[in-house]
């Protein structure tokens, strides 16, 4: 398969900045996704047609945007759309990790106009992808440009961004464009979960169970690719299995293991419909280490096998591939 020809949307990129250009593998191919690490600086991309996802893991200072000044203590994450610019004021140098991308990197149907003003022509799967972009589109108390996050999730996001950059730099095989995009997708999925998590847990009046469930959610969101058992969680969080599951289901409406499986399937489904990565790679990355088990669980939750789901929903899928 000729990836450059099949991904025709890449030729429509006009901006020359904030683009990763293929060297030997897919030579000349322009991917509107790039990574940079600066010190005490947030790039202004308003003239380049890019969104910025910015992670600040250390330090404190003031973030200025739209005439408002927001004091912050790290870690914080910023979701800056094409109309916004955030200035960083700090007393000493702090590292800033930034990802620049066009929304069509998530789905080729997306552009700056239709993501801000959906016209009703999106399919159900496109609507799912659009939901992942809400932190860049909506502005409200639930969707601020600047959000404080916990240290564990910040470290996990940092790890994914570093892996994305390594993939963009190495360009080691035919799948480097999809693999780098898939790491951005994992970050966006996690951000959507953190927003939902904050909303649901804020409704609880019982502090101790709420804090414990929050800690468990953080662990699940940052370790889903590894083997996780209820016994292990019980020992880790110093609570018996029954109490742990009861408190967790009270706040999430799911048992711990059901939540974990649902999260893994969500990531797997997103990577199947938005990338052409091998199914085996997606399976391993989402914590399924047995093909038969993966297919059975995935079909139980989506009514389709992984390959059938991709054929039916992947916007990059080429018939007969």
Explain the overall architecture:
With 321 residues, the chain is α+β, with helices and mostly antiparallel strands. The chain folds into two domains: 3-150, Jelly Rolls (Sandwich); 204-313, Arc Repressor Mutant, subunit A. 47% of the residues lie in helices and 15% in strands. The chain contains 13 helices and ten strands. The protein has helices at residues 3-6, 112-116, 124-132, 134-137, 151-170, 176-201, 207-223, 230-236, 241-252, 256-274, 279-285, 291-302, 306-313; strands at residues 20-21, 30-31, 33-39, 51-56, 60-65, 68-73, 76-80, 87-89, 95-101, 146-148. The strands form three sheets. It has a five-stranded antiparallel β-sheet, with helices on one face. The longest helix has 26 residues, at 176-201. The radius of gyration is 20 Å and the shape is globular. The N and C termini lie close together (8 Å). The model is unreliable at 1-15 (pLDDT under 50).
State which percent range the strand residues make up: 5-15%
Examine the secondary-structure arrangement and name the CATH architecture of the largest domain: Sandwich
Mean pLDDT, to the nearest integer, reads 90
Series of H and E elements:
HEEEEEEEEEHHHEHHHHHHHHH
At the first level of CATH, the class of the largest domain is Mainly Beta
How widely separated are the two ends? 8 Å
The strand count comes to 10
Q: Give the strand line-up of the largest sheet.
A: 3-9-4-7-10
Tell me the Rg in angstroms: 20 Å
Low-confidence stretches: 1-15
Pfam families: HTH_18
Domain HTH araC/xylS-type: 214-312
Protein name: Helix-turn-helix transcriptional regulator
Keywords: DNA-binding, Transcription, Transcription regulation
């Amino acid at each position: 398969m000729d990836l450059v020809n099949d991904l025709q949307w890449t030729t429509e990129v006009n901006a020359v900045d904030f683009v990763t250009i293929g060297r030997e593998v897919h030579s000349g191919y322009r991917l509107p996704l790039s990574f940079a690490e600066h010190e005490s600086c947030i790039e202004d991309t308003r003239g380049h047609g890019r969104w910025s996802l910015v992670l600040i893991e250390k330090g404190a200072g003031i973030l200025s945007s739209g005439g408002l000044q927001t004091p912050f203590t790290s870690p914080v994450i910023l979701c800056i759309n094409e109309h916004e610019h955030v200035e960083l004021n700090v007393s000493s140098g702090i590292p800033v990790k930034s990802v620049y991308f066009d929304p069509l990197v998530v789905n080729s149907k997306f552009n700056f106009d239709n993501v801000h003003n959906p016209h009703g022509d999106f399919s159900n799967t496109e609507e799912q992808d659009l939901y992942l972009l809400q932190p860049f589109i909506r502005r409200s108390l639930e969707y601020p440009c600047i959000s404080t996050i916990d240290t564990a999730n910040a470290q996990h996001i940092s790890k994914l961004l570093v892996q994305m950059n390594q993939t963009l730099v190495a360009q080691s095989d035919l799948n480097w464009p999809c693999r780098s995009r898939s790491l951005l997708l994992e970050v966006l999925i996690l951000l959507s979960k953190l927003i939902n998590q904050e909303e649901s847990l804020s409704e609880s009046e019982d502090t101790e169970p709420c804090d414990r469930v929050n800690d468990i959610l953080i662990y699940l969101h940052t370790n889903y690719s590894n083997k996780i058992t209820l016994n292990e969680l019980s020992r880790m969080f110093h609570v018996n299995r029954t109490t742990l599951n009861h408190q967790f289901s009270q706040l999430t409406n799911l048992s711990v293991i059901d939540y974990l499986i649902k999260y893994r399937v969500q990531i797997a489904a997103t990577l199947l419909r938005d990338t052409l990565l091998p199914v085996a790679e997606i399976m391993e990355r989402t914590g399924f280490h047995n093909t038969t088990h993966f297919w059975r669980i995935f079909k139980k939750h989506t009514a389709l096998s992984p390959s059938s789901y991709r054929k039916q929903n992947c916007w990059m899928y080429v018939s007969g591939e």
